[in-house]
Design goal:
The protein is of the alpha+beta class and about 180 residues long. It has 2 domains: about 40 residues; about 130 residues, minor pseudopilin epsh fold (3-Layer(bab) Sandwich), CATH 3.55.40.10. Strands 1, 2, 3, 4 and 7 form a 5-stranded antiparallel sheet that branches. The chain is elongated and about 100 Å long.
Length: about 180
């Protein structure tokens, strides 16, 4: 066979992709799509659960800080946000400069309900928003905070007077 014929046969064999190369590309595309789906598809139930867990951690940290520093703190709730306060000379002041205890918005499309010492609270009076007091003795105002999604998912955070905090998901048959 001539040199031209050998070169022509070699080019024909190299013209396409091997099965292994195609499978590798399909696998890489599948992995990329999986990561994109996971990062985009976070459901509202998970977002609310994360928010309740974050708030529980912040209250525990605020309680510890209150005991160690001997200062009184409070957690103030509004319809769509919450913030930590410290007792000033005359009034309660936001901890605005503190990155950890800064004002935090609640997730979109989440409804907040709050019971303080067994009494349902209102967010109408902006000058007297409901507060959970975090005392330097380790105690806090008993409360039950409920976050509810548009899809009906509910999570509660219950704070007991001894400082214990409990998170619970409320299912349809518990309502």
């Amino acid at each position: 066979m001539s040199e031209i014929g050998k070169t022509h046969n070699r080019c024909l064999r190299m013209a396409g992709f091997t099965l292994l190369e195609l499978l590798a590309v399909i696998l890489i595309i599948g992995i990329i799509i999986s990561f994109a789906t996971i990062s985009i598809g976070q459901n509202s139930s998970r977002i609310v659960q994360d928010e309740v867990e974050r708030l529980r951690g912040l209250i525990q940290l605020a309680s510890t800080e209150s005991v160690l520093q001997g200062r009184e703190l409070a957690l103030e709730f509004d319809r769509n946000k919450y913030q930590f306060l410290e007792q000033g000379e005359k009034d309660w002041l936001p901890l605005a400069d503190d990155k950890l205890f800064r004002e935090r918005p609640l997730p979109e499309a989440v409804e907040l309900a709050l019971l303080l010492e067994g009494i349902e609270t209102s967010f109408r009076d902006k000058k007297n928003l409901p507060r959970v007091f975090i005392l330097s003795s380790g105690e806090l105002t008993p409360f039950i905070m409920t976050l509810k999604t548009d899809e009906g998912e509910e999570f509660t955070l219950e704070g007991q007077s001894n400082g214990k905090l409990l998170v619970q998901q409320i299912s349809d048959n518990e309502r």
